[in-house]
Amino acid sequence: MTDAHGKRQALLVAVAGKPESAPRIVSPLSRLARAARIVPTTATEALRRAPDLAAKLAGEGGCLVLGEDVPVDDARALVAATSGVRIVVPSALAHALRDMASPDVIDAGARVLEPMFLALVEEARRASMGALVGLSVRSPAGRRVLRAASTRTPFVDGARIPFDLSADAAARIARLAAGPFALADAVVPGAAPALDVTEVVALAGADRIVCHARIGDVVVEVDLDEEMQGEGPLEVEAVMRRGALVCRWSKQGASLTRKALLRDGPVRLEVVPSPFEVATRHALAAPRVADAPSPASLAGAAASVEIARASLDRYATRAKNRPIEMVLVHVPRYRNSYDELELPSLAAARLAAFVRGHGFFTRIHDLQITHADDRLDAFADDAAVDGWLAGTESPAVAAAAEHMWNSFGPELVHAAASGRRALVGFSIVDYFGHFQMNIAACLARLVKERTGFPTVLGGERDQVDGDRALGTGKTFDYVVDGDGEIPLLGLLHLEAYRDRRAADIPGVWSREGESVTKNKLVRSHLNAMPRPDFDDVPFELYRGKPTERLLAALARDGLYHGDSVEPFAYLPYGFVKGCTAKCEFCSAKEWLDVQSPEKTADELIALSERYGVRDFMFLNNLVNVSPRLLERLCRRLVDSKAGLQWTDSCRPTDISAELAALMRASGCLLLNYGAESGSDKILELMKKGLLSRDIVETLRNTHGAGIINRVNFIAGYFHETEEDVDATVHLVETLAEEIDIVGCFQGFYLFPGMGVVPEDAGIVLRPDFDRLKTGQVTLAYDEIGGLKWEDKRDVIDASRNRILSRMGELGIRTLDKINEYDLFWMSRRYDKATVTKYLLEIPPRPVGRRNQAAMAPGGQRGRVDAIPGGSGYLG
Questions:
Q1: Between the CA of residue 15 and those of 1, 21, 43, 45, 46, what are the distances in Å?
Q2: Are the C-beta atoms of 724 and 681 separated by less than 8 Å?
């Protein structure tokens, strides 16, 4: 059949369930009238004439178009009777016929035929904004969470991931991924079979799958999460060198948005064709390839499911044969002169558990404990360290680095010689981060020179100087900003499979030539993380006993009779990230994540059983983020009869007498309180979110329950007056019986990374560092409308001395450092009054480690070149 111009016309047979519904099928096809002859009929008539229709359509290159009211049985019969003829069907029929997997049945609702998506494909192929460099098919942004995002986890039994999914789970997740795989393949041909699974969470109704591939210069990512819902089910982003296009599906239909310099905004098509029209054009034009059915066909959809299933099968195989290992180095931290705390790294234990769970062999090297008594002062000389890193000879730095290298380096050299590869991570953890940075940079240099392995730096984000790390040649390849689990997993996959770019991994800073990419940090939810893995901890070095001085004092008073004391260890643990308070001077206010009490209790019990420990130091910013959650945790610990003991920090509010008694019964020995001040005005300026009466009530309740109250105060806060100092003195007098120990009591000092916003605090920073009269290094500042720094420094010292003097008159003792071995051992044998008495009577030695000295705090901007009254760090 030809048109008036002699051009061949295709035959379109529009099949309706009833005669009266035929116009509803013909109307969406009206724009095809010039290119095709449209003949309406009913399903009954089409079935009666099926053989003739099949022959005629095959000869004239036409197709059948079925309406929405065609019965499923009639549709099945037509498909069977017209083999070899393309049939366009609405989505509902396509879903009902999917078991037929016909290459000739085209789904008019297939997302690969959405006009906005086809416009994206065309723009990407034309390279309208430069070459395509990235493609992401993902669950929608701006999403609503069905349940708490942190409740799901791929880990089972607290530790490992089951890579071999059950048949039902694999089939379900393959169906979830099939459509997105087809979309990816439509934009980047060959992407679907190349996509490999990075992560799977199999949970019916809340499945998650993440896949990556690199096709030439294009990085492809599929990130699907059933738990996330937004305006629609899916979005596709094509990233080009000079912009990006984002196609989103919503209840109102699909939209296309352009992101480009001076061209941001929605993309509108002059004419938006109907799904039937697009699908029919595709049915008429798409070539027939036996082993490559149209992605819009039922066979194509089935093939996409099989491709996704093959990726899941490869996931199980690859996870058991990872081509790269993870090495985590716990860098020695700087200790203040009073600080003898030796604690395994909780961060390293969490990271190790996470990457081990994903199938990567992981080794932790705890240099903190193995080099606890080494002289480390060579690393405090910044000029010498910088010079050595730049190639200048520095025998002291070289010798110190070589000595530390010998603890773990030979193992890396052997691995490299045997053809193995490793990603070597260095973790720095405290406010003297520049000191650890020096050590980590020197060791990273040796790793690069002697093995060529990639290196990464991470830790407390306020203390990780990423610019310095990436700016120092031949040290670090990457920096992790924020939580390390997800960034490290991405880097391991990058180094193992080259399936992504560092510039695309959340939370990773990387350098390419002169360009540095600083990706936004990503947070890992505690409930989704595995139980910390302390398997590599050298417990023989961490086991200790109560001090001989303590035992002698107890024996002197007839409380100890020379019984044998077995050495024991205690472990760090945490179940709260961030804080509910918004204290002006604290950086912990930016994030809050709380682990479920049930998971916390179960993990503590499991850790106790696995490592033979019964004592824990909780590292939360506050244990009482929620009284209800704290009550659930304590009840579970009490019911377990595990006999655990623990200490933590606590916000001085919302602890009733009943809750305090339950906390003590669950093993709570000591709480560290940040009371800071007795002045409600100062508490408000600090943004503490509580009043002095809350402090009084809380400390009385915990004291009465038999918990040791260790209280911290700050003297000389911004805009503090004599009346405010009076209020603090009054608070101390009111709680003279309830304050068992004053822990950190110092004049207020300010350092980089602390979280203070000068404008909000009512101060103006000066460019210099200074020292308080107690020797503490601080940034200098002037109070707006208040004191100049020279006067403020004197007032800080006077306020501290006045409060300290009154504490002394009341018999309240300060103790900066508690010996945890003494505390945990005594608490199993004596009451609170006895424990407190001997903790105060037998304080730790002033200096117990050779690497302790007076040093300025560091962080991202904290390298002090000159301090009035001294030079460098050690002046």
A1: 20, 9, 6, 9, 7
A2: yes
Could you tell me the strand order of the sheet in which 615-618 lies?
Answer: 571-573, 615-618, 645-650, 668-676, 708-715, 741-747
CA distances to 382, 506, 640 from 518, rounded to whole Å, are 25, 9, 46
**The residue type at 307:** I
Measured in whole angstroms, the distance separating CA 308 from the mean position of its chain's CA atoms is 27
Q: Are 222 and 184 in contact (CB under 8 A)?
A: yes
Q: Burial of 414 by CB count in 10 Å (0-12 exposed, 13-18 middle, 19+ buried)?
A: exposed
Burial class (CB in 10 A: 0-12, 13-18, 19+), 56: middle
Q: What type of residue is 532?
A: P
Q: Which of 139, 127, 133 is nearest to 503 (CA)?
A: 133
pLDDT tens-digit map of 124-142: 999 989 999 999 999 886 5
Assign 844 a pLDDT band (cuts: 50, 70, 90). Answer: low
pTM: 0.89
DSSP 339-389: -------HHHHHHHHHHHHTT--EEEEEHHHHTTTS--GGGG-HHHHHHHH
Quick one: CA dihedral 784, 786, 787, 792, positive or negative? negative
Give the SS3 label for residue 197.
Answer: strand
- DSSP single-letter state for residue 744: E
3-class SS shares of the chain: helix, strand, coil, % to 5? 40, 20, 40
The dihedral sign for the CA sequence 108, 112, 113, 116: positive
Residue pair 528/483 in contact by the 8 Å Cβ criterion: no
Q: Phi-psi region for residue 739, left (φ > 0), alpha (ψ -120 to 50) or beta? A: beta
C-alpha dihedral sign at 55, 61, 67, 72: positive
Residue ranges with strand state E in 528-596: 571-573, 576-578, 592-594
pLDDT digits 0-9 by tens, 206-255 = 899 999 999 999 999 999 988 876 667 899 999 999 999 999 998 888 99
- Angle at alpha carbon of residue 87, lines to 302 and 90, rounded to 5°: 75
d(CA 147, CA 157): 21
- Which residue type occupies 753? G
